[in-house]
Every structure is written in C-alpha cells, then in structure tokens.
Design goal:
The complex is a heterodimer of chains A (309) and B (254). Helices cover 32% and strands 21% of the residues of chain A. The chains are: A alpha/beta (309), B alpha/beta (254). Chains A and B meet through strand 3, strand 5, helix 5, helix 6 and helix 7 of A and helix 3, strand 9, helix 4 and helix 5 of B.
C-alpha cells in the first residue's frame, strides 16, 4: 500500500523552510481556522522570527496569535470577525495599531467570513447569506453588498470570495504527503484549506500513510493540495489540541499583562519568540512541570470504524 | 438569612431564567456560558447548547470549563462539526435563543462591540463581532448582557456591530432580516425588555438594592419604566452552589 503513495513526493520539511518558502511578504495568510483550538502558534512565531512584513491575516477569531503578529510589526491588514484574547478581552497590540491607523481592518462576522472562504472554496465570486443586513459591517467591509434574490425577491448579503495565499493549520497527525487527521471542532478549517493557494500543515505527529488512509473521513483536506508538512510537537501551545494537551489558560492570562504596553510586549516577544530557535528551547522554557499539567488526564478513544469491502 | 451575591451572579441567574426547557441555545462566552450551564442543570435539562466553533452539546461538560474550546466541552459532544453547519442551523431559524455581551447599546437594542467613536474617529477599537452579528441577525431572539453605565447606554450607538431594532418598528423587516431581535437586556442594575409596538427599551425589573432613579441616571436617554415594574429575584443558595461548580475559582463571577 505504501507503494501507491510513493508516486507523490514527500512534503516534509522544517518549520523555517515551510514559512520561508510559502509565506511571502505581502501575502494573505489564514490561521486559527478552528477558532480556539489547534491555533498554529509555532508557525506564527516563526513568521515573526523571519520578519515577514505587510501580511494580511485572515481568520474567524484569532485568539492572541494575531495580536502577537500585529505587535511584531508583520501585519498590514486583518480580515476577521474578532481580534483579541478570548478569556481576557482586548488584544492590546491590535487595539494600539487600529487606533493609530497602522493596520487596516475588514470587519466580518463569523458567518460572513465562513461564506467568504466558502465562496473561495467553491470557486464562485460570492456567497449569499441573510446575516449582517442593516449592520455597519457594510461600512468597514467592502466585500459585503446587498443583492436581491432572483427567485424570492428577498434582500440578501453577498459576501465576496476570499482566497488566501496560504492557510496554516495545526493537525494531530499527518503523513509526509500532506494527508492529515484532525478531530475536534473544525471551525472554518475545511473551507480555508480548499480556498487557499497553498496549505502548510504542522502536526503533533508524523505517521505512516497507512495510518491516515485507514480513516479517510478524518482527513481534513486532500493531501494533494498541501504544500508543506512540518513535525511540530506542542505547535499549538497554548491553545488546546484534542487528544494531546489542554488549553494553557495561564499563558493567555499572563499575555494580557505582558502586552499592556509596547515596551512590556517587546520583552515578551524576546523571551517567547525571538530568543527561541528550536522547539526544544521552547519546551525547555515552558518547563516539564507545566507541560505535565496540560497533558490529558482522561483518555477517551473512539470505537474503530470498519472501512472494509 | 440574607444571601450574599455579586452583580455578575444575579446577572447569570437572570440569564438562566430566560432559557426555556428544550430551547436550542447559541451559547457564547463568559456570563452567558454560565447562564446556559445553570439553566441546563436546573429547570432546562433538555436545552441544547450550540457553540460557534463547531460544537453541539446536549449534556454538561464533565468538568468546569473556562471557555467553549476547552477539551471537556468536546468530550462526548452530540456533534463536532464545521462553523458553517452551526451557522446554517441559525440561518434556517432553528436557534431559539442566544446571548450577546455588549460594550455599547442604544434605546432600540443595537449593539456596538467594534468601534467606540465610530469607524472614522476611532476612540477605542474593541474586538469586533465574532458571531454576535449573526446571532442578532438570525436567532429567534437574543438576550443582551452588559454593565449598566451611562457611557454604555447611549441614545445611538457609534457603530452597529449587531443589529437590534435599528431606529424602531419595521426597521428589521425593511433591512431584510428574516426574524428575531433582542428580547431582553440584563444589566448590573436591572432587566429591560422591548415595547412590542415601538421596539423601545423599557425597564421591566430592578435588582434588589438598585433604584429606578439610579437606573435612569445610568442610562443616556429618557428611559421608559414599565407600569408593572418587578424586582429581580435574588439568586437562590442552590443556584450559587451550582455556579461554584461551573466557575470554581470565580473567574467570571467575582
């Protein structure tokens, strides 16, 4: 069976190679597509270390990753529904940048962003929805227009398609050809992948193609669309990864304090991103005790499904 | 015996009472999440919880959660899915109730969680809609939960993130919104509802210790008061004990 898969080339590479190759300055990057879970923090931090600039970030909510990229000066524009720190509220870097006009914002709701990526995934210029009618999202998002339904005559919101240059997702396990198993809530991950020109998959584990193809329903997007696969254990920390580790709430609570001013934030950035060069260094900084506290306490395996014929 | 409670706790118990058994509830974060869990464990055991990141639950999570993406909230969920699936349920009209927090609200229940000062003269940039605009547009009803302060209760919001009744009766229909609108506003001082004719906010209940004068002084327009003004029931000791289970460190309710 491995022989079949070998017609494709391995896409396995290092995190720095993947970001260097597929995240160009000025590109449109979708991240945090599952919302609170599986946020690709390690990849985001590598973008900061490589001093990428003029990026447009795309995501439903980003939790604090987008705030970190804004604070590091990588961002020109954000197309998102919510930008902040989920359990503490405002993202201070984002707030400062928005209030002094340093970044542009295209305001979405979760549904308009879902429809924008869905249109991108389906290869059509827009998708219709009944949300946001009468709201001021129309004034700060040029990708929303009212249209009249040709069948019912009803007023609808048309949401312009979004096609990211690259979508970065974190998966539980992937094979080297880009086929990845993701479980848990998915948010807009599937639409974002299908809409994107490139996909980078970072994964807790790299496994054989046989393991992935044993359960094709769990594959998040077809591997032939994926550009790069990166082995990145703890690559979503401090966000949670179903089956691997829990949410590190303290990191989000600390970040509120550590991003309060630009001066304090630059200290955070140095300690947690710029001075970190390998995954081992990150995990050493995190510490064994903290990691042990985040690991699953109760395992719960699903029943295998029979895909036989 | 006098029961001691915080403003957040009376808001949560009031929120829980807005849920009817069997309701499909789009839950959200913070106090609404606690209100849903409280209702589910008391008078509304058959309520269904829908979480925008792609989770549907018909049971309580096995342990306390701080936010909806915490792994116990995924454990034996009824469905783990895509946001599009859950937004579809909402758009079809299958969600009975939802909860939204706000930074700024006006007399017709329009909410601003994006730009204080407006988009062209930004005084404070807030996180934005998240799913709130969708809930306000598409749920059968939505309940607003927020602090009652004059700077937050304004005659007209600077930016409509989540539509209420616009400028009054007929506005939602003219905009093309298929249904819904705010049913209730739960604040630190009282509970407000909307006049069925004019769609204007009316003070319906005050929390113990608050006065009508106090509420009016903290509202930025001449507030109408119901001629059947109630006093909000204080949280029962059993409700507070239940809340302690969901928020053991009082992260949301201190």
């Amino acid at each position: 069976m491995e022989g079949l898969a070998k017609v494709a080339d391995s896409k396995l590479c290092s995190l720095s190679e993947a970001i260097d190759r597929y995240v160009a300055n000025g590109s449109q990057v979708a991240m945090g597509t599952a919302q609170e879970t599986l946020i690709p923090f390690a990849a985001g931090h590598e973008i900061i270390r490589q001093v990428k600039s003029d990026l447009t970030l795309i995501g439903p909510i980003s939790d604090m990753l987008f705030d970190q990229l804004v604070g590091a000066g990588c961002v020109r524009k954000i197309r998102a529904a919510w930008i902040g720190n989920v359990i503490t509220g405002s993202g201070y870097n984002f707030r400062r940048a928005a209030e002094n006009g340093a970044i542009g914002i295209e305001d979405h709701s979760v549904l308009t962003l879902t429809m924008a990526l869905s249109a991108g995934a389906m290869g059509v210029p827009f998708m219709p929805t009944s949300t946001a009618l009468g709201s001021d999202l129309y004034t700060t998002n040029t990708g929303l227009k009212t249209v009249v339904c040709p069948f019912s005559g009803k007023t609808l919101t048309a949401v312009a398609a979004i096609n990211p240059d690259v979508t970065i997702i974190h998966a539980q396990r992937a094979d080297r050809f880009g086929n990845a198993h993701v479980w848990g809530n998915l948010g807009v991950t599937r639409e974002a992948c299908l809409a994107s020109r490139h996909i980078i998959v970072t994964a807790e584990e790299i496994v054989s193609a046989d393991i992935i193809s044993s359960d094709p329903n769990r594959v998040v997007t077809p591997g032939f669309l994926v550009s790069a696969v990166v082995h990145a254990p703890w690559g979503a920390h401090p966000s949670p990864v179903p089956g691997y580790y829990n949410r590190d709430h303290q990191a989000f609570i600390d970040y509120r304090r550590d991003s309060k001013t630009t001066e304090i934030f630059s200290g955070w950035l140095k300690k947690w991103v710029k001075d970190i060069h390998t995954e081992e260094e990150y995990l050493a900084l995190l510490g064994a005790e903290r990691m042990a506290g985040l690991k699953l306490k109760n395992h719960e395996f699903s029943e295998p499904a029979d895909y036989g014929y | 015996m006098r029961i001691k409670y915080t403003p957040a706790q009376i808001m949560v118990t009031a929120a829980a009472r807005e849920i009817t058994d069997g309701d499909v509830v789009f839950v959200g974060m913070r106090l609404p999440l606690l209100g849903f869990l409280l209702a589910k464990s008391t008078h509304a055991p058959n309520a269904i919880g829908v979480y925008e990141l792609g989770i549907i639950r018909d049971t309580l999570a096995p342990e306390a959660i701080l936010t909806m993406g915490d792994l116990p909230n995924l454990y034996r969920a009824q469905w783990l899915a895509d946001s599009a699936d859950l937004m579809g349920l909402l758009q079809r009209g299958l969600v009975d109730a939802s909860f939204i927090g706000g930074a700024q609200v006006d007399r017709f229940g329009n909410l601003n969680t994006s730009y204080i000062g407006g988009a062209n003269k930004i005084r404070t940039r807030l996180p934005g809609s998240g799913g709130a605009c969708d809930l306000a547009s598409l749920a059968q009803r939505h309940i607003i939960i927020m602090a009652h302060e004059k700077r937050r209760f304004v005659p007209r919001v600077d930016y409509i993130t989540s539509p209420g009744y616009g400028d009054g009766a007929g506005w939602r229909e003219r905009a093309g919104l298929p249904r819904g609108g705010p049913s209730t506003v739960i604040t630190t001082l009282g509970i407000l509802r909307f006049d069925p004719e004019t769609k204007e906010m009316v003070l319906a209940s005050i929390h113990p210790g608050a006065t009508v004068e106090n509420v009016k002084a903290n509202t930025g327009w001449p507030l109408r008061v119901s001629d059947k003004l109630d006093t909000t029931p204080v949280p029962a000791q059993s409700e507070l004990a239940m809340l302690k289970r969901f928020d053991p460190e009082d992260y949301w309710t201190q």
